[in-house]
Write a structure and sequence with these properties.
Blueprint (H helix, E strand, L loop, with lengths): L6 E9 L3 E5 L9 E4 L12 E8 L5 E4 L10 E10 L2 E4 L7 E4 L12 E8 L5 E4 L17 E10 L3 E6 L3 E6 L12 E9 L5 E4 L4 H18 L3 E2 L7 H8 L3 H14 L2 E4 L2 E4 L2
Parallel strand pairs: 13-15
Antiparallel strand pairs: 1-2, 1-4, 2-3, 4-5, 6-7, 6-9, 7-8, 9-10, 11-12, 11-14, 12-13, 14-15, 16-18, 17-18
Helix pairs in contact: 1-3
Length: 279
């Protein structure tokens, strides 16, 4: 079965003046799709199987391409607006025909040259279109387990919940407020660790590593800031957690672990209600 918006592995079953016809097997003559001449990889012949993406061309015909678009069904991506017209905005997504983002699928007024997080869906006329309403397009059935490292796309932030992340551009993820130690921009791809898998399958995330690995990162960060501050920081194990978070972008517990390591290594010491470099 041919499916719009997905990459499929299809067989070359027929040649024509316009290109090669592809299908799931050589006996399938009805459900076939054209791979235009300009798209054919060199050396492709009858019987070969190739990976192609299916979409509709400017004449509303289903066609195949060997190019991989920036967005497929079941994913979200950060795409640039090529132009805004009277039917909506058109987005650059790596194919000859730009992708339509209808006005009814826009959550904010978009501008040409700017980029926005969108997902892909099939509209009532069987066309591929973009939408900014991405939450319901994401899946809760991820392959991830706790402490697995991966990447994710930031697509929303709220004061109540935290930073919403599309893990691998496909799965529901959230950085809860207490795990936020810096500013995030919509459209950022970030490195994340799976902190928890909720019963509903949604993922709780953090940018911080497991304790031992993160301790070294935090210790190096404290030393970097100490050197910028002429070797002294007015922070200690009794400092307000919010001040530590604002100054160092880490929790008080992480600060105490990292300072403990630096004290043990003999590179810092407590002085004047703070810490300073020993040499």
């Amino acid at each position: 079965m041919l499916e719009l918006g997905k990459v499929q592995n299809l067989m070359v079953i027929q040649e024509s003046d316009f290109g090669l016809y592809l299908a799931e097997d050589q006996d399938e003559l009805q459900d076939k799709v054209l791979l235009p001449n300009a798209e054919i990889p060199e050396g492709t012949k009858l019987g070969d199987k190739i990976d192609v993406f299916l979409y509709k061309d400017t004449q509303d015909r289903i066609v195949a391409t060997c190019k991989e678009p920036l967005l497929k069904l079941g994913e979200v991506a950060f795409l640039e607006v090529a132009e805004v017209t009277d039917i909506g905005a058109f987005l650059k997504w790596g194919l000859i025909k730009d992708l339509l983002l209808p006005f009814k699928e826009q959550l904010v007024k978009v501008e040409a040259g700017k980029s926005y997080v969108v997902g892909l869906y099939i509209d009532k006329t069987d066309r591929l279109c973009a939408t900014m309403k991405v939450y319901n397009l994401l899946s809760s059935e991820s392959p991830y387990i706790i402490n697995k490292m991966t990447r994710g796309l930031v697509y929303r932030q709220t004061p109540e919940h935290g930073v919403f992340v599309a893990v691998d551009g496909k799965y529901h993820g959230l950085i809860i407020n207490k795990e936020i130690y810096r500013e995030y921009n919509i459209g950022d791809w970030i490195d994340i660790r799976i902190k928890n898998v909720r019963p509903d399958g949604k993922l709780e995330l953090t940018e911080r590593r497991q304790v031992n690995s993160q301790m070294e990162i935090d210790a190096n960060q404290i030393m970097t800031i100490l050197k910028k501050e002429d070797g002294f920081l007015p922070l200690n194990d009794k400092s307000n957690p919010n001040i530590i978070k604002e100054k160092l972008k880490m929790s008080k517990a992480s600060f105490k672990r990292a300072v403990g390591r630096l004290l043990k290594e003999g590179v810092v010491e407590f002085a004047n209600n703070g810490i300073k470099i020993r040499f």
